Amino acid sequence: MTEVKELKVEDIKKQADEIRCPVQRSLFYIKEFLAGPMCGRCLPCSLGSYEARIRLENIVEGRGNESDLVAIKRIARDMLEGSMCKKGKDTARFILEWMEKDAFEDHIHGRCHDLECKAFIEYFIIPEKCTICGLCKDVCKFGAIHGEKKKPFMSGYLPFEIRQKRCTKCGECIKVCPEGAIIIIEAVSKRPVAVEQVEDRLDSAEALK
C-alpha cells in the first residue's frame, strides 16, 4: 500500500497563496491542514481549527457576520499562544496575516473584490444587447438560461434571462455571447463588475479546472 506523504504547512501555504481571495485562501488552507494527521494534544489547535473552518465557510457562502470574524481571530490567537508545535503556530500566523486585509470585512458586507466567492456575484443578461441567438442557452449545462431561441421571420421574442438559483457562475455563457450582453454584477448592490476583473476571474476559473 502506497503511503501518502504528509504536506508541510509551507507546502499548503504555497498552494493557498495561488488563490487571490484571502477568505478563500484561508478556507483552503484550513481544509488542507485538517486533512493531514493531527496529534490532538492541544485543544486550541485540534478543536479550534474545526470551528475556524465552519466560520470561514459561513463567510464564503454569504452567511457570515461580525461574530464569525471575532471567533476566527480568537481561535488564531489561542492557537498561536497555546499550540505545542510549530505546525499549529504557523497556521495561526498565516490566518492572522490574511485577516489583516479588508477582504474579510468586505465579505461580511456582501462583497468579494476578487470575484472568487460565488455567493457575492450574479450573471446578468442586458436585455437591450441580447439578440436572442440562443448560444448562451446551448452552452449552459445546468439549464440556467431561460428563453426561446429566435427563429427567422418571427417576432415577439423576449430576451434571455438567467435563473440565479440554477446558475453555477461557470462563465461559459459569457465566452460565447457575441454581443457582450452577459455581465457579472455584485449580488448586493447590483453594480456591474469591471471587464478586467471579469477576465481575471474567468482566467482563474480555467486555471482551477
Describe the structure.
The chain has 209 residues and is mainly α. It folds into 2 domains: 9-108, de novo design (two linked rop proteins) (Up-down Bundle); 118-208, 2-Layer Sandwich (Alpha-Beta Plaits), CATH 3.30.70. Helix content is 48%, strand content 7%. It has helices at 9-16, 22-35, 43-46, 48-60, 66-82, 86-99, 103-108, 135-139, 172-176, 195-208; strands at residues 121-125, 145-146, 161-162, 182-186. The protein has a two-stranded antiparallel ribbon. A two-stranded antiparallel ribbon has the order 2-3. It is elongated. The model has no long low-confidence stretch (mean pLDDT 87).
Put the structure in a nutshell.
The protein is mainly alpha-helical and 209 residues long. The chain contains 10 helices and 4 strands.
| CATH fold-type name of the largest domain | de novo design (two linked rop proteins)
Termini distance? 29 Å
Contiguous runs where pLDDT drops below 50 for at least 5 residues = none
Tertiary shape? elongated
Average pLDDT works out at 87
Strand content: 5-15%
Order of helices and strands: HHHHHHHEHEEHEH
The CATH architecture of the largest domain comes to Up-down Bundle
Structural category is: mainly alpha
Report the major sheet: 2 strands, antiparallel
How many strands in all?
A: 4
Q: Quickly name the level 1 CATH class of the largest domain.
A: Mainly Alpha
Assembly form of the protein? single chain
Which SSEs are present, and which pair or pack?
Blueprint: H1 9-16, H2 22-35, H3 43-46, H4 48-60, H5 66-82, H6 86-99, H7 103-108, E1 121-125, H8 135-139, E2 145-146, E3 161-162, H9 172-176, E4 182-186, H10 195-208
Antiparallel strand pairs: 1-4, 2-3
Helix pairs in contact: 1-2, 2-4, 2-6, 4-5, 5-6
